[in-house]
Amino acid sequence: MMTTTSQPTSDASKSEKSKILFWNRSLSRYETEKVFGDSGVRFLYQSTFGRLLSDHLFSKKFFSRLMGCYYDSSLSRRHILPFIQSYNVPLDEFEDGPFDTFNEFFVRRFKPGRRKFPTEPSSMGALAEGRYFGFEKVDAHTAIPVKGVYLQPKELLADDGWGEVFRGGPCLIARLCPVDYHRFHFPDFGQVERSYSIPGQLHSVNPLALSVRPKVMIQNLRQVTLVSTESFGKLAIIEVGALGVGSILQTYGNRREVQRGDEKGYFKFGGSTVILLGQAGRWIPDSDILEQTQKGYETYLQLGQKVANAT
Prior knowledge:
This protein is an alpha+beta fold. It has eleven helices and 17 strands. Helices cover about 25% and strands about 25% of the residues. The strands form three sheets. The protein has an eleven-stranded mixed sheet. The chain has a three-stranded antiparallel sheet with strand order 4-17-15. Strands 7-13-11 form a three-stranded antiparallel sheet, with no helix packed on it.
């Protein structure tokens, strides 16, 4: 169960060494994240031998594929109940099983009506359920509040042409922990213009790892979808693979027309990240997200919860 506190007891740069704090908007309080595999993440990214193993073994695609094969097998079913008990998963919010494998449980859907997107055209709903950083504009000097992590659209997209489209525009970064809902959705009505994959490694995206591997966002495997939307202009939706993520699966198929709130795809086992880039002057993240980001804290949002406004 997550530990709560009314306000952080130290600044983000100090607290991240021992714990990860985030702001829960719905509950109006800071909470301490219970990190899945905490000791393993610390070993892999905060020790010399662990970083060696991470670079040459655990961040490789074959390792995550092996993990994926295991979690797709019936042998993995025995992990479901301990996981539910350890992380207090609210099963009443999700569709019923039975779940024959851990991955079937991991990619569970919400029951109909449990999450809704805004109906007001100018309000953007959260495309994933997780912990958000937000930026009013992104340029070469924009840094995630983790040591040395800089954002540049052309590097995130690995495409100079599209990088120019989103230069100086707004950005949201949604980090999904293993305990979260692991499907992601389209934030608005629109047309898919292009989709492509960028090869890369599979390092952890946990802040503990980012603090020593600051270029993970541009080194990890990524899938990019470019969408022209009705209310927010062009958007780049970037799914970032991570340690233990067996697959990033797109469920919207080859459709060009998409609806607000439509399921786009899902991650198999492992925590990961979805990045949303926009055009300059088209929308702005909510003020509380911007404020918490400046303080160095992520904001926890439910799927569909208001996250930004068209300008």
